[in-house]
């Protein structure tokens, strides 16, 4: 019994977070810092201070500050996914497969933008470009994207559109890139660009117009991009 007591007292500052809880507490602290100030606000010292431990205790779970930022990035992405799921769950699906698939696609896009507007710091953190130590070798793009919740939602929605006959199979390849980049671009313009100053009504109109354009663009049209390459 004495040996157990000695072991606990030797790690006084970490005791509330034994059995791995400290790491989770630090991740949530890092996410809170990112929420307030974006990825640049996430530091070992600030996260340790928020949790009430020393920086030394933090290094038991994270090799360095970049490691902690990556953990905050994953937490931010999970929260983005939760926002999208909440909006999808709130939808009353249409009995028609094509309309239901379009509803899911639009809801996912709306949830994506809603998260960006409500949590710009976390949104910037979720899409932070990894540092050199996290660089992935060529050929692993599909693996990286498959682990990103927004990509997974989008892939499922697009496959549903094909199955419902809304999206032509020949237009399916790379449709994720076009749809995702459009919605992501609008989100960035709304939080960091000229659209940030738009009144709520105008902002909502832009969101509806953009999502409508994405849906209409997926409904058909020539598969060839030759008009863009015409000389």
Give the strand tally.
Answer: 0
User: Biggest sheet, open or closed, and with what strands and sense?
Assistant: none
CATH fold node name of the domain at 73-220: Tetracycline Repressor, domain 2
**Radius of gyration of CA atoms, rounded to a whole number:** 22 Å
Mean pLDDT: 83
Report helical residue fraction.
55-70%
Number of helices: 12
CATH superfamily of the domain at 73-220: Tetracycline Repressor, domain 2
Low-confidence stretches: 1-19, 221-231
Order of helices and strands: HHHHHHHHHHHH
Q: What would CATH call the class of the domain at 73-220? A: Mainly Alpha
Q: What's the oligomerization state?
A: single chain
Shape: elongated
> Helix/strand/pairing class, anyone?
mainly alpha
Strand content: under 5%
Task: Spell out the key features of this protein.
Tetracycline Repressor, domain 2; 12 helices; mainly alpha; 67% helix
Brief account:
This protein has twelve helices and no strands.
Give a written overview of the molecule:
It is elongated, with a radius of gyration of 22 Å. The longest helix is centred in the middle third of the chain and has 26 residues, at 65-90. The protein is an all-alpha fold and 231 residues long. Mean pLDDT is 83; it is low at 1-19 and 221-231. It has a domain at 73-220: Orthogonal Bundle (Tetracycline Repressor, domain 2), CATH 1.10.357.10. It has twelve helices and no strands. Helices cover 67% and strands 0% of the residues. The protein has helices at residues 2-9, 21-37, 44-51, 55-58, 65-90, 97-118, 120-126, 141-146, 149-163, 175-192, 200-218, 226-229. It starts with a helix and ends with a helix. Helix 6 packs antiparallel against helix 9 (149-163) and helix 6 (97-118) packs antiparallel against helix 11.
């Amino acid at each position: 019994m004495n040996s157990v007591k000695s072991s606990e007292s030797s790690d006084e500052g970490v005791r509330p977070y034994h059995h791995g809880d400290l790491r989770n507490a630090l991740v949530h602290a890092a996410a809170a810092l990112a929420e307030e100030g974006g990825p640049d606000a996430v530091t070992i010292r600030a996260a340790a201070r928020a949790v009430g431990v020393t920086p030394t205790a933090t290094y038991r779970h994270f090799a360095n500050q970049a490691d902690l930022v990556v953990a905050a990035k994953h937490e931010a992405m999970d929260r983005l996914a939760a926002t999208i799921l909440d909006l999808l769950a709130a939808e009353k699906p249409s009995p028609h497969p094509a309309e239901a698939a379009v509803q899911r696609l639009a809801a996912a896009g709306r949830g994506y933008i809603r998260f960006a507007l409500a949590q710009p710091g976390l949104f910037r953190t979720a899409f932070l470009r990894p540092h050199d130590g996290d660089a992935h070798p060529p050929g692993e793009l599909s693996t990286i994207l498959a682990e990103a919740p927004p990509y997974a939602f989008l892939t499922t929605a697009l496959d549903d559109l094909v199955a419902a006959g809304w999206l032509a199979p020949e237009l399916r390849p790379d449709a994720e890139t076009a749809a995702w980049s459009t919605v992501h671009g609008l989100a960035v313009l709304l939080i960091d660009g000229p659209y940030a100053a738009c009144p709520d009504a105008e902002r909502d109109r832009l969101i509806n117009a953009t999502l409508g354009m994405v849906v209409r663009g997926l409904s058909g049209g020539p598969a060839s991009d030759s008009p863009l390459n015409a000389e």
